[in-house]
């Protein structure tokens, strides 16, 4: 909460290499409090890598990443502390199969002493109710459908009361009929004022919910703007080409 | 996490050192000499039907110790193990029907000779082999490191036979009885005593290339022990006790008595169990002790090394890989001999065979455990660690609450497998003279020559405890998987 200047994320000249392969070629992006940013672009453009650099699941090679006022490119920064306020939702959910749904949601708050067991349980049940899965509290993750699993994963991330939520293609691994439920939960979250960065192929969601859309290709940010600007009047030929392909598919 | 691993490692090191120190604190006060003896070399060293070791060597060294007011502790571990233990300073002396030779004088100082014996050739009762010249192209059974073996090898070129070597006299005899080998070479009194006690062989040559038996200490060490032995031996010869001891085992009446007992014995499977129940029970206990202690220590060691393989720290990965590489790559038998005989040579500290056995199993089984522990952890989907870390859980907590519970489920079948292998591998420790179940079997057979039946009993005992161990493990598995 020490974002003095109302900026939740400030990325400056971010470069990420895998060996000699440069995946991110000097990105700059600022995300304000309460803002919803959708990142779109062809596969392999570096969207997910960018997202993973924001909570240091990937180590940035060069550049500066400041999240919530913490300079996470500084080795001395305690990443565990920073991660507590950055929720992340993965393409493949990554629920913990050795724990029940409720235990998945309670694990981090209890382990990190953010809440007593009883308080954490009360909150977890409330969060599960909000994502429409109150009755699944005692189920095992293996018994859930993909859409249900992803909603539990969102509840799990929210249990830490994050300031920012990162979504890494949250609906890409879902059957089409499951996508709606997950997007509904995300829309509700956006309305409540959560700062969100969403890597997605759901153009409809981006159009409706995003405050800003960022188009990435070949490790560069090619274009950014509000949804009307990007979807209705794209300036960059790469953006135009990409949108033509996905919207007419 | 790193800190925890460090403390675990420290704990283990402390435990080991404690065991080592325990084994070496017997130096103080009045010196007790540890003397190694053979176990299957009647009438010099063998186990009597009451389970006590007896024979000319045993009676002689005990009488000398009494005469000279020495404190001695006898370690019946077998000829090879005894000789190597003395070389490694694990024991002070060896009396095991050991012939004094020039080659051996390079490594040992010998007492005055206490018995003169020649080498003879023995063949199966119905064999047509009558002399050395009948051996051309045939196989000959020898016992490793004995004078009989040296004698046979000196004749090998001339008479053109092949050689098979055994660790135990009984195995050598049986190889001849079953017809695998045509003949065996043995010291005359040993062979004669054996035949009179029921070994189905006959002696076909006159005692030749005689040798003197001597008591031995490592070259340059324990001169006072040697002096006392010589002085005592002289006294026993003078007061007639020496002759009494020899007559007890090789005199006419003793042979008749021994034959009578041998014939009276109930050699049915059940009869053998009843006669040897205390020896078999003790062997079983030793096997269980070895197994349980080794399983616990190997699991701790293996889990630590396995975790070191997966933690994000290069030095830990490297150390772990090296340890697994070395201890998984080395045959258990070699590792056991190296630790029991090699380590004292390097450090100058004695360790008991039991402790050496535990260390051997811990390192070897632990290396296998480490390999499947790290494999089990690696098999857990990488997304699990990422999800846990993204919630703010530190590495250790993520490992403990998320990764390990999943990994352990994957590892359980391997753990059960490893426990069973550990139990079976304890039998290999008979080479360093630990009196566990297999060694007990060898010793009983050396006395009663009922190899097939005794091995049947021993095999059944192993199967029973392995079955129990498997049941126990499966019960634990069911509880964990619930």
From TrEMBL, chain A:
- Quote the PROSITE patterns the UniProt record gives: ABC_TRANSPORTER_2
- Could you list this entry's UniProt keywords, alphabetically sorted: ATP-binding, Nucleotide-binding, Transport
GO molecular function annotations of the record: ATP binding
Q: Where in the numbering of this chain does the ABC transporter domain appear?
A: 9-243
Q: Where is the signal peptide?
A: none
SMART domains assigned? AAA
| InterPro entries attached to this UniProt entry | AAA+_ATPase, ABC_ATPase_HisP-typ, ABC_transporter-like_ATP-bd, MetN_ABC_transporter-like, P-loop_NTPase
Record-linked PANTHER family: AMINO ACID IMPORT ATP-BINDING PROTEIN, ARGININE TRANSPORT ATP-BINDING PROTEIN ARTM
User: Could you identify this protein by its name?
Assistant: Amino acid ABC transporter ATP-binding protein
Give the species.
Loigolactobacillus binensis
Q: What are the top taxonomic ranks of the organism?
A: Bacteria, Bacillati, Bacillota, Bacilli, Lactobacillales
TrEMBL record, chain B:
What are the coiled-coil residue ranges? none
InterPro entries documented for this protein: AA_ABC_transptr_permease_3TM (IPR010065), ArtM/GltK/GlnP/TcyL/YhdX-like (IPR043429), Iontro_rcpt_C (IPR001320), MetI-like (IPR000515), MetI-like_sf (IPR035906), Solute-binding_3/MltF_N (IPR001638)
Xref: SUPFAM superfamilies = MetI-like (SSF161098), Periplasmic binding protein-like II (SSF53850)
What topology does the record note for this protein and the membrane? Multi-pass membrane protein
Q: Does the keyword Cell membrane apply?
A: yes
Membrane-crossing residue ranges in chain numbering: 288-311, 323-343, 454-472
Origin, by domain of life? Answer: Bacteria
Q: What are the UniProt keywords, alphabetically?
A: Cell membrane, Membrane, Signal, Transmembrane, Transmembrane helix, Transport
Database matches in Pfam families? BPD_transp_1 (PF00528), SBP_bac_3 (PF00497)
**Keyword Transmembrane: yes or no?**
yes
Q: Where is the ABC transmembrane type-1 domain?
A: 284-473
Instruction: Give its localization.
Output: Cell membrane
Its signal peptide is: 1-28
Write out the similarity annotation.
Belongs to the binding-protein-dependent transport system permease family.
Question: This protein is called what?
Answer: Amino acid ABC transporter substrate-binding protein/permease
The organism named in the record is Loigolactobacillus binensis
The top of its lineage is: Bacteria, Bacillati, Bacillota, Bacilli, Lactobacillales
């Amino acid at each position: 909460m020490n974002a003095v200047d109302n900026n939740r994320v400030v990325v400056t000249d971010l470069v990420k290499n895998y060996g000699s392969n440069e995946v991110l070629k000097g990105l700059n992006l600022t995300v304000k409090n309460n803002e919803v940013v959708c990142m779109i672009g062809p596969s392999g453009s570096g969207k997910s890598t960018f997202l993973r650099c924001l909570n240091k699941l990937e180590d940035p090679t060069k550049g500066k990443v400041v999240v919530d006022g913490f300079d996470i490119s500084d080795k001395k920064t305690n990443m565990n502390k920073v991660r507590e306020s950055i929720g992340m939702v993965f393409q493949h959910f990554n629920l913990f199969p050795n724990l029940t749904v409720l235990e998945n949601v309670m694990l981090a708050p209890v382990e990190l002493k953010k809440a007593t067991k009883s308080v954490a349980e009360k909150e977890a049940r409330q969060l599960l109710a909000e994502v429409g899965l109150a009755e699944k509290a005692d189920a095992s993750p293996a018994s859930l459908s993909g859409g249900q699993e992803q909603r539990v994963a969102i509840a799990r991330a929210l249990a830490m009361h994050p300031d920012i939520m990162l979504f890494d293609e949250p609906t890409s691994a879902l059957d089409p009929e499951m996508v709606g439920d997950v997007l509904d939960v995300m829309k509700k979250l956006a309305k409540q004022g959560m700062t969100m960065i969403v890597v997605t192929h759901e153009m409809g969601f981006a159009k409706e919910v995003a405050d800003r859309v960022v188009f990435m290709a070949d490790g560069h940010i090619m274009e950014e703007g509000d949804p009307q600007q990007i979807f209705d009047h794209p300036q960059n030929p790469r953006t135009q080409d990409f949108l033509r392909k996905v919207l007419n598919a | 996490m790193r800190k925890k691993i460090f403390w675990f490692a420290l704990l283990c090191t402390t435990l080991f050192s404690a065991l080592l120190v325990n084994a070496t604190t017997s130096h103080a006060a009045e010196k007790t000499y540890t003397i190694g003896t053979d176990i299957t070399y009647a009438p010099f060293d063998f186990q009597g039907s009451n389970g006590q070791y007896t024979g000319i060597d045993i009676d002689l060294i005990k009488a000398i110790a009494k005469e000279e007011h020495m404190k001695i502790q006898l370690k019946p571990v077998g000829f090879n193990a005894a000789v190597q233990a003395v070389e490694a300073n694990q024991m002070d002396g060896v009396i095991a029907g050991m012939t004094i030779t020039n080659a051996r004088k390079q490594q040992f100082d010998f007492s005055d000779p206490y018995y003169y014996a020649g080498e003879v050739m023995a063949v199966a009762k119905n064999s047509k082999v009558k002399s050395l010249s009948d051996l051309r192209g045939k196989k000959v059974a020898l016992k490793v490191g004995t004078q009989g073996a040296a004698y046979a090898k000196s004749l090998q070129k001339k008479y053109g036979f092949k050689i098979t070597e055994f660790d135990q006299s009984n195995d050598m005899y049986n190889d001849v009885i079953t017809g695998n080998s045509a003949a065996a070479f043995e010291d005359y009194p040993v062979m004669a005593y054996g035949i009179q006690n029921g070994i189905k062989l006959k002696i076909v040559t006159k005692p030749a290339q005689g040798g003197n038996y001597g008591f031995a200490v490592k070259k340059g060490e324990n001169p006072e022990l040697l002096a006392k032995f010589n002085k005592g031996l002289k006294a026993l010869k003078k007061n007639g006790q020496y002759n009494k001891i020899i007559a007890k085992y090789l005199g006419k009446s003793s042979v008749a008595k021994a034959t009578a007992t041998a014939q009276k014995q109930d050699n049915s499977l059940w009869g053998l169990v009843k006669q040897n129940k205390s020896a078999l029970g003790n062997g079983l206990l030793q096997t269980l002790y070895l197994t349980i202690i080794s399983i616990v220590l190997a699991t701790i060691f293996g889990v630590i090394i396995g975790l070191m393989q997966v933690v994000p720290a290069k030095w830990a990965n490297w150390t772990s890989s090296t340890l697994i590489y070395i201890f998984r790559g080395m045959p258990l038998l070699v590792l056991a001999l190296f630790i029991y005989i090699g380590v004292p040579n390097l450090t100058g500290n004695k360790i008991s065979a039991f402790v050496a056995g535990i260390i051997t199993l811990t390192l070897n089984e632990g290396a296998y455990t480490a390999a499947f522990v790290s494999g089990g952890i690696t098999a857990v989907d990488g997304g699990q660690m990422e999800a846990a870390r993204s919630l703010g859980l530190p590495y250790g907590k993520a490992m403990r609450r998320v990764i390990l519970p999943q990994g352990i489920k994957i590892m359980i079948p391997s753990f059960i497998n490893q426990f069973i292998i550990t139990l079976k591998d304890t039998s290999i420790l008979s080479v360093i003279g630990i009196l566990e179940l297999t060694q007990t079997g060898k010793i009983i057979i050396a006395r009663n020559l009922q190899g097939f039946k005794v091995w049947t009993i021993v095999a059944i005992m192993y199967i029973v405890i392995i079955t129990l161990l498997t049941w126990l493990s499966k019960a634990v598995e069911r509880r964990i998987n619930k």
